[in-house]
Design a protein that fits this description.
25% of the residues lie in helices and 30% in strands. By secondary structure, it is an alpha/beta fold. The chain has three domains: 64 residues, Archaeosine Trna-guanine Transglycosylase, Chain: A, domain 4 (Roll); 101 residues, 2-Layer Sandwich (Transcription Regulator spoIIAA); 190 residues, Rossmann fold. α7 links the parallel β17 and β18. It is globular, with a radius of gyration of 23 Å. Bound molecules: S-adenosyl-L-homocysteine. The site of S-adenosyl-L-homocysteine has 21 residues, from α4, β15 and α6.
């Protein structure tokens, strides 16, 4: 049996339930475990803490899978865990499309599984999880009899674990262009070449939050990706909708999605750099009833957090200037390291610089199929804010 013993003087994070054990918190390792192996973790006084997977290449030496001594981490264990994840989504009412497994928040560190009706997309972002891919596929087959399973491990973070970036079928090949339903609308999703796992499920509830403000409005959406917020706006009765994205393929998919829903007459999409265009349109004096912003994460590391703050302030300032007095700014941030308080502070600074008064209408987070674990900050990452701009 492989054993890892923790130092005496370490932060109480692990004792308080956090699953990560950093290399500098470890006193000694016994049994010479190979990378990816399951190890038992003990406190300095030999008290059992849990079992987890080991990777000496990673700064996070162990990620805990279980706090139980008698658990055997095997194929059956993964099947039970995936069943638990599904049971939770069924209980909270997220079944057709949902994040079935949200990594650490589901006790399965570095595993993401998105369910798009009968199709599943998997990301195994650490070696100790990657080695269980066959067990995960088997579990999905047992529980769901899926029409298809696809691997989207084309993610740079895998390289920190010594893993290659790769993508491909984990089931018999199938057509990776699928259609999903959301809030009464239909969307093309490209599981193979779309961003991340193909679709941003975390905003599914937030898209409904624009229902009333979109009515009769002229709407501008930037960072539209495949047009989901914008198509919702048109569906909810907007007079005109323009969506912008820097990616030509996203714009093409967005236009197809508008057509799929019979909304192409009121809803169009163009390829543009939002930072440049919003600045110019501000100078031109263009005005909208609703401006929506949903930029990608601006940083993943603490060293460049200032860059993210500057980016959010800049884009929100430019967005706000385009809102008619009494109109609305709908703004999101998915940067993990920008916590909710900091995000609101940035928006407040942007309002000050834009010389506009704002009042909060909604402040929400990701949908609950992406559960939040208190004490694990990185599980609450999405900020979604609607403000009225005077
Ligand atoms: N709102 C979308 C998700 C947006 S993801 C949804 O709910 O599905 C962020 C998008 O911003 C990506 O599609 C990316 O191509 C786009 N993007 C990144 N930089 C940009 C820029 N400077 N200007 C416009 N779009 C940009």
């Amino acid at each position: 049996m492989y054993k890892v013993f923790l130092r005496k003087k370490i932060a109480p994070r692990v004792a308080n339930g956090h699953p990560w054990i950093f290399a500098n918190e470890v006193e000694k390792t016994e049994g010479n475990p190979e990378a990816g192996a399951v190890v038992s973790v003990f406190a300095h006084d030999y008290k059992f803490i849990g079992q987890g997977y080991f990777n000496p290449r990673s700064q996070i030496l162990v990620r805990l899978l279980s706090r139980k001594k008698n658990d055997t981490i095997n194929e059956q264990w993964f099947l039970e865990k995936i069943k638990e994840c599904w049971d939770y989504r069924c209980k909270i009412g997220y079944t057709e499309n949902c994040r079935l497994v949200f990594g650490e928040a589901d006790g399965l560190p570095q595993l993401i599984i998105d369910k798009f009706n009968d199709y599943f997309v998997i990301q195994t972002l650490a070696l100790g999880m990657d080695v269980w891919k066959p067990a995960l596929v088997k579990a999905l087959e047992t529980i769901f009899s899926p029409k298809g399973i696809y691997e989207r491990n084309d993610v740079p973070v895998r390289e920190l674990e010594g893993l290659p970036q790769q993508k491909g079928f984990l089931s018999a090949p199938f057509d990776t262009q699928i259609v999903i339903n959301e809030n009464g609308l239909r969307f093309h999703v490209d599981l193979e070449n779309g961003q991340k796992t193909g679709y941003f499920l975390d905003q599914q509830d937030n898209r409904r939050a624009i229902q009333h403000i979109a009515k009769g409005a002229d709407v501008l959406g930037a960072f539209t990706y495949t047009g989901t917020f914008e198509i919702h706006a048109a569906y909810y009765g907007a007079r005109s909708v323009l969506g912008l994205d820097i990616s030509a393929s996203a714009v093409a998919q967005a236009n197809r999605n508008a057509e799929l829903n019979g909304l192409a007459d009121r809803c169009r999409f163009e390829a543009a750099n939002a930072f440049d265009v919003l600045k110019q349109w501000g100078k031109d004096g263009r005005q909208y009833d609703v401006v929506m912003l949903d930029p990608p994460a601006f940083t993943k590391s603490r060293e460049t957090i200032q860059k993210a703050i500057t980016g959010y302030k800049e884009i929100n300032l430019r967005g706000m200037k385009l809102v008619k007095p009494g109109g609305f700014l709908v703004t999101s941030s998915c940067t993990n390291l920008v916590n909710p308080e900091l995000f609101l502070e940035i928006i407040s600074l942007a309002a000050k610089d834009a010389r506009r008064r704002i009042r909060q209408v909604h402040f929400q987070t990701q949908s609950p199929d992406h559960p939040i674990i208190w004490g694990q900050e990185n599980t609450q990452y999405l900020k979604f804010l609607i403000v009225q701009v005077q």
